[in-house]
Amino acid sequence: NVIDEGTPVDVAEKAVEPLGLPMSPLVLLELVGPAIGLHVSETLNGAFPERFTVSPNLKAVVEAGKRGFYVYDSGKPELDPEVAALLKQGDTVLTEEQVRARVLDAVAQEIGLMLDEGVVAEAQDIDLCLITGAGWPFHLGGITPYLDREGVSQRVNGKPFLEAGVASVPA
């Protein structure tokens, strides 16, 4: 996790803002609950240790009984000082662009694996799930055409998810 590695919380949070998702990752984690997020990451790590890690900082937040990373005393989210005191970070500080690239690369890798393993029949199934279930902006046409247009799918998987002309922007 980039926060564990040393990227400031505010940089990690702002990194995905340009994607137009309805909330930031830590606000979503607060909504889901840190304990549930930790359980999911431990389960994924147990099944796929080469792809998923368990955040020591998330574990510390859960063990401290915190229900999120933020306080809302000013009316907007601010990093909870008690959570900030728990965070142990490395010295690898990424820029917003580097964080976003890492996130998109990981998403493209997982989508590629789901398609290759037959978890879903086609890329549009993933697009529909993310639009209706995760709030991916529908005007972007789905995550897979976005990753195709940005060149991420080609870079990560060696090929686009969709055939040319399917949900793509003409060159």
Number of domains: 2
Largest sheet: 2 strands, antiparallel
Count of separate DSSP helical elements: 10
Global geometry:
globular
Question: Alpha-carbon distance between the termini?
Answer: 35 Å
Determine the mean pLDDT.
Answer: 94
Structural class by SSE content: mainly alpha
Contiguous runs where pLDDT drops below 50 for at least 5 residues: none
Number of strands: 2
Strand order of the largest sheet: 1-2
Q: What integer value in Å does the Rg equal?
A: 17 Å
Write structural notes for this entry:
This protein is mainly alpha-helical. It folds into two domains: 20-86, no CATH class; 96-157, Orthogonal Bundle (N-(1-d-carboxylethyl)-l-norvaline Dehydrogenase, domain 2), CATH 1.10.1040.10. The chain has helices at 2-5, 9-15, 25-32, 34-47, 56-63, 81-86, 96-116, 123-133, 143-149, 152-157; strands spanning 70-71, 78-79. A hairpin with a 6-residue loop joins strand 1 and strand 2 (78-79). The protein starts with a helix and ends in a 14-residue tail after the last helix.
Helices and strands, with pairings:
Elements: H1 2-5, H2 9-15, H3 25-32, H4 34-47, H5 56-63, E1 70-71, E2 78-79, H6 81-86, H7 96-116, H8 123-133, H9 143-149, H10 152-157
Antiparallel strand pairs: 1-2
Helix pairs in contact: 2-7, 3-4, 4-5
